[in-house]
Amino acid sequence: MSQTDPWRLGAAEMAAAIREGQLSAAEATEAALARMDAVNPRLNAVVEGLEDEARARARALDEQRAEGGPFGPLHGVPVTIKVNVDQAGKATTNGVPAFAGLVAPDDAPVVRNLLAAGAVPIGRTNTPEFSFRAHTDGPLHGRTINPWGDHVSPGGSSGGAGAAVMAGIGALGHGNDIGGSLRCPASACGAVTVNPGLGRVPAWNPSQTAERGMLAQAMSVQGVLARNAADLDLAMDALVAPDPRDPFHVPMAYRGARLDRPIRVAFTRETCGYPLHPEVAAALDTAAEALSAAGYAVEEAAPPLMPETAEVGYRALMGEVKALMGADIAEKGSETLNAIFAEYFRQYPPYEGAEQLRAMAERTRFARAWSLFLEDYPLVLTPFLAHPFFAPGRDAEGAEGVEEALGSAFWSFAMNFTGLPAGNVPARLAALPAGPQPIGVQIIGRRWREDLVVEAMAAVEAQVGPMAPHLWARMG
Question: Is 335 buried (19+), middle (13-18) or exposed (0-12) by CB count in 10 A?
Fold first, then answer.
């Protein structure tokens, strides 16, 4: 500890150091705030600092520990919260100027669970308008810079969270995902994340004035980005705690029954017509080799109904968005966002009327096919994108930009449509002409078995190593 800057510690290491008395919550918080002061002016990952509240909470946690009080698994660990989720007394802007004054009356369940686990929120992170872009930029909070450099987008919509956690601003970054908003920033920034399955992490914003559409409820999930799999494992155990405000939450323990070994993993290089970039192919092969070396039975196999699952799912989501959010986006969204949505709608024509209802019904057919496939293969290793992560603002560059940023991401939003857990782990650091960047791969798991996904990602990480040390050496 004497030779380690506390901000460099992962959540699990930091929690252990605080528990063992080697580090105080106040020291951990001060280190994270100092790191935020040092790197955030360039990155614009955190758009609202919570310095005073963080220091007060850290002091209270240290006093609580000294008095022998409750000690949560994340006791004293600095975290960030995305600005599209309610945090009492803070504006839930969702990146939209018209929502800058929308102050939350209470904490969302995911925030409440983090606080109950002992975490210390130190700031709120950036998101694009309506949290509906694969790149993080907007008229209210501005653009977030990927800590790897200006040659690659930080992803979206949880781009602020991904950039912050990888740069050392907090050990965990809260985010959420309706079609890739956790896994895009993880892939872009070199973080580790899991998109929890349907019903796993309770969700609701007390500030909302109407319920979300059925597909938004079914496809949107809450989670975290971390620098390593052990931190993600620790956080997920805390996030799945029940909250009665989410009546459809599944009250199951994070860790499920042990499966017979070796666990079978279906491995696919399928890109559904998009060319597979050599760096992505190399990352997939490395991940497959790492899983095999760790004792998994890796077999090439074709998962069912792809890319049909993704195409129907995204067109159905676009149908709901157009019907329920279209007027707000047109009125409150920027010209850039409206142009992007026009291209979304052109490439993925929204379903309407009876066609929309049939697509929503078909969701069960896709989910059933995947459930049967996962009976044979509890885990599936897939590409995340067919190519390395794209340049900043690529999704705003017309048809080709949307195609590159969204079109080849079918492995991402298919999992939201079926409600399955899917993780993203870096499996390669690519030396590309524009600059170095991590390459993430996706691991899909059985329903309600996020623990199996995280365990498999830890096996990949054990061979490849985490990305943070490489990044910090580059940042200086």
Answer: exposed
**Which residue is catalytic, options 82, 153, 207, 412?**
82
- Find where tokens 């018209």 sit: 98
Q: Would you call 181 a catalytic residue per the annotation?
A: yes
90 in catalytic set: no
Q: Is 143 helix (H, G, I), strand (E, B) or coil?
A: coil
> Which domains, ranges and CATH numbers included, belong to the chain?
6-475 (3.90.1300.10)
- Cβ neighbours for 193, distance < 8 A, ≥ 6 positions apart: 175, 182, 183, 185, 186, 223, 224, 225, 226, 232, 423, 424
Model pLDDT, residue 476:
86
pLDDT in tens, 233-269: 999 999 999 999 999 999 999 999 999 999 999 999 9
| Separation of first and last alpha carbons in the chain | 21
Q: In degrees rounded to 5, what are phi and psi of residue 471?
A: -65, -45
Alpha-carbon span 153 to 418, nearest angstrom: 27
Q: How many CB atoms lie within 10 A of CB 460?
A: 27
**Amino acid sitting at position 218:** A
Element at 66 (helix H, strand E): helix 51-66
pLDDT in tens, 6-29: 999 999 999 999 999 999 999 999
Q: Determine contact, residues 470/245, Cβ cutoff 8 Å.
A: no
CA distance 152 to 437: 8
Q: What does the alpha-carbon distance between residue 276 and residue 340 come to, in Å, rounded to a whole number?
A: 25
- Total count of residues recorded for the chain: 476
Residue 218, both tokens: 């079914």
Question: How many Å apart are CA 421 and CA 449, to the nearest integer?
Answer: 7
Give the whole-angstrom CA distance, residue 373 versus residue 265.
Answer: 11
Of 24, 158, 181, 220, which is the active-site residue?
181
Please report the sign of the dihedral spanned by the C-alpha atoms of residue 16, residue 19, residue 21, residue 26. positive
What is the tens place of the pLDDT at every residue in 149-198?
Answer: 999 999 999 999 999 999 999 999 999 999 999 999 999 999 999 999 99
Instruction: Determine whether 322 is an active site residue.
Output: no
Backbone angles phi, psi at 95, to 5 degrees: 75, 10
Confidence of residue 416 (pLDDT cuts 50, 70, 90): very high
pLDDT in tens, 201-236: 999 999 999 999 999 999 999 999 999 999 999 999
Q: Which of 24, 157, 220, 334 is catalytic?
A: 157
Instruction: State the pTM of this model.
Output: 0.97
